[in-house]
Write a structure and sequence with these properties.
Helix content is 46%, strand content 14%. The chain is an alpha/beta fold and 351 residues long. It has a single domain, classed as Deoxyhypusine synthase (Deoxyhypusine Synthase, 3-Layer(aba) Sandwich), CATH 3.40.910.10.
Length: 351
């Protein structure tokens, strides 16, 4: 008997709620262990230290498929509790996953057999996409693509930074789906800027392709990646003390680290990022950025080495422990959110 789509898309991925789990005692016990356990404890302490440093602006970097994996509520809570001042991410996390769920769609748990890849042909016939052990309804994803086209159609036909467009996405969710929790929506409400340096590499790209095709030779919306870089650099110039909390590597990691150099290019004596934590499974030996150590970044003048820690772990294991430790230690409670979107758009301060 042939399987139907509804037979496979039954069990939804559920987002972990840190409020329901006490992790502080566990993480503190890990400092007396070895290897990644001890590294993780130190990373958690550094993140808590960032939050207790009232001068520090915290930049969260996201690479890989994280929101679909059940981490969405952690990111939303980090923003809600003033534990993040800016986000730099791949487009997939922001659009295909967070905004996608903000529209009311979900990600689904794949049966064990599907992880092997032997049934991917069947999934293709059913319009189901697979991320390892997670399934997505391609028809719903096309709806997300088309929603991005509609948002693009409503913008002034000129170049925009990804931050400007993602803020419009947050406004859309606030008006249409205000009760569905998520990163994009919470960032919009808290004036936390979100940047996607490679914004076209996701469902947003399909929406913009459709938008630009329909406009032909007429005025159209485009993405200005240089403006992204300039805006984030302005935040570094205006808030010299910064800390990075990086999950994965890739473009978000490099983009956020490079603003120190960019500020110097603009004639500002910007200090290196004072704090830096990275969770990664990448290997340092291939020379790729994702696995390059934070000490290596120091040689480029990007990251100070006083408070830096690499954690070699898969994100769904390490992030709940590190973020949960900082959340429950409460260093954020006396912290005022930077509301950096208002620095980039002063008119927001009057609202």
């Amino acid at each position: 008997m042939a399987l139907k789509k509804k037979d496979l898309l039954k069990r939804t991925v559920e987002h972990i709620d840190l409020a329901k789990h006490d992790v502080v005692s566990l993480v503190e016990a890990m400092q007396h262990m070895s290897y990644s356990a001890r590294d993780l404890h130190r990373a958690a302490e550094i993140y808590d230290r960032m939050l207790r440093d009232r001068d520090c602006g915290v930049i969260l970097c996201l690479a890989g498929s994280l929101v679909n994996a059940g981490l969405k509520k952690i990111f939303a809570d980090m923003i809600r509790h003033n534990m993040v001042d800016a986000v730099v991410s791949t487009g997939a996390n922001i659009v295909d996953q967070d905004f996608f769920e903000g529209l009311g769609f979900r990600h689904y748990v794949a049966d064990e057999r599907l992880k092997l890849g032997v049934d991917d042909g069947m999934l293709r016939e059913l319009n189901i996409d697979r991320i390892y052990d997670t399934l997505i309804d391609e028809d719903e994803l096309r709806n997300c693509d088309d929603t991005m086209r509609k948002i693009a159609d409503g913008l002034e036909p000129k170049p925009h930074s990804s931050r400007e467009i993602i803020r419009e996405m947050g406004a859309y969710l606030d008006a249409k789906h205000p009760k569905i929790d998520g990163l994009v929506l919470e960032a919009y409400r808290r004036d936390v800027p979100v940047f996607c340096p490679a914004f076209s590499d996701c469902s947003a790209g399909f929406g913009f392709v459709a938008h630009q095709h329909a406009r032909g030779d007429g005025p159209k919306v485009s993405i200005d990646s240089a403006k992204d870089f300039y805006e984030l650099t302005q935040l570094k110039i205006k808030n010299p003390v910064t800390g990075l909390f990086m999950i994965g590597g890739g473009v978000p990691k490099n983009f956020a680290q490079d603003i120190v150099v960019a500020a110097d290019v603009l004639g500002h004596d910007a200090s290196m990022h004072k704090y830096a934590v990275q969770i990664t499974v990448a290997d340092v030996r291939d020379g790729a950025l994702s696995g390059s150590t934070l000490k290596e970044a120091h040689s480029w003048g990007k990251v100070d080495v006083s408070y830096e820690q690499m954690v070699y772990s898969e994100a769904t294991v390490a992030l709940p422990l590190i973020a949960g430790y900082a959340l429950q230690k409460g260093g954020w409670k006396k912290r005022t959110g930077k509301r950096w979107s208002r620095l980039l758009e002063p008119s927001l301060a009057a609202k």
